[in-house]
Design brief:
4-stranded mixed sheet, 324 residues, 15 strands, alpha+beta, 5-stranded mixed sheet, binds acetyl coenzyme *A, Peroxisomal Thiolase, Chain A, domain 1, globular
Length: 324
């Protein structure tokens, strides 16, 4: 088999929907001022789903994964690789992927996590493709899942309004037909300072700052430049033009980043999948959740060429081009 193909997708969002107005009212009780108007104008976000206390990333991931398996028509006995992209794992160890493996009743193959923040799903998909192409796996579950609300500083209005919780998943299988036709990943560790959660655990204590911190304007510029270059490069690598792309599924951080990117690449907004208004930024879950939404509502069809893009802390970024 010379290709790896997405054969199913799934998504799960925790049931509690918090609108901007709800959030503004909650923050006001703590003396923090924000508004639906500010959030919509700067980000396009209208609401987010937030997990109740006690909800773990593996629980969301398992639900999304089961839906993707049902969609692909594969059973637990068929899965021989599970990769979970997350920055909010249940535990220091074991990996969230191992917990998902147990919950799904998968008893064979490898399971591990990938940590590339909002680029995590694109990193995980590229890794799974390499396993399949090398003949080391035949059916992979690739999952992006986060309880991102757990690392937010709810007293920092510059960040806490931007994120939500959720999970998205795909089944990637060995195939005679394409498939993923291009992929490229990047990192620039020297840019750690613009987006990080720089706490750690030592001697049983959290040391340092456990919350996400961000220089919003620096991230904005870096994201648009990195993603536009990456989109062009992955198209050259695959021998296709940007105009051949049927659907762009970019990381869902901010509607303004997505619009700038589309304009820079000349990809019309009708070809861009947007869920950030409904889900906010779900980090590693954002791309598979958006992909799943557009497959389920019939926009993305078999045969379509889809460009998926991630960008986030590290700094990390990358693109995957897939024929559905
Ligand atoms: N409500 C009301 N006012 C706010 C809020 C808020 N939630 N947050 C900040 N402000 C205020 C600031 O205090 C500031 O007030 P001041 O002028 O009195 O000091 C004013 O709004 C402008 O603040 P900026 O930080 O300059 O606002 P900016 O226009 O840059 O918008 C934003 C901030 C939305 C974060 C923007 O920088 C952005 O889109 N950055 C991209 C980063 C992003 O989306 N990151 C997501 C995670 S990273 C990733 O996924 C790749």
């Amino acid at each position: 088999m010379s290709f790896a193909k997405i054969t199913g997708s799934g998504g799960y969002l925790p049931p509690r929907v918090v609108t901007n107005t709800d959030l503004a009212a909650e923050l006001a009780t703590r003396g923090i001022e924000t508004s639906d108007e500010w959030i919509v104008e700067r980000t396009g976000i209208r609401q987010r789903h937030l997990a109740d206390p006690g909800t773990r990333t593996s629980m969301l991931a398992t639900k999304a994964a089961q839906q993707a398996m049902d969609d692909a028509g594969v059973a637990a006995a068929d899965i021989d690789l599970i990769i979970v992209a997350t920055s909010t794992p249940d535990y220091i160890f074991p990996s969230t992927a191992c917990l998902v493996q147990a919950s799904l009743g998968v008893r064979q193959g490898a399971a591990f996590d990938i940590q590339a923040v909002c680029s995590g799903f694109v990193y995980a998909l590229t890794t799974a493709e390499a396993f399949i192409k090398a003949g080391r796996a035949r059916a992979a579950l690739v999952i992006g899942a986060e309880v991102f609300s757990s690392i937010l500083d709810w007293d920092d209005r510059k960040t806490c309004v931007l994120f939500g919780d959720g999970a998205g998943a795909v089944v990637l299988q060995a195939s005679e037909t394409p498939g993923i036709i291009g992929a490229e990943l990047h990192a620039d560790g020297s840019q750690m300072g613009i987006l990080h959660a720089a706490g750690n655990v030592a001697g049983g204590q959290v040391v340092g700052d456990p919350f996400l911190r961000m220089d919003g304007q620096a991230v904005f510029k870096m994201a648009v430049n990195a993603l536009s270059r990456s989109a062009q490069d992955v198209c050259v690598q695959a021998g296709v033009g940007l105009s051949d792309i049927n659907w762009m599924v970019p990381h869902q951080a901010n509607l303004r980043i997505i619009s700038f990117l589309g304009k820079k690449l000349g990809i019309p907004s009708e070809k861009v999948v947007v869920t950030v208004d409904q889900h906010a930024n779900t980090s590693a879950a954002s791309v598979p959740l958006a992909l799943n939404a557009a497959r389920r509502d019939g926009r993305i069809k078999a045969g379509d060429l889809v460009l998926m893009q991630g960008v986030g802390g590290g700094f990390t970024w990358g693109s995957v081009l897939a024929r559905m």
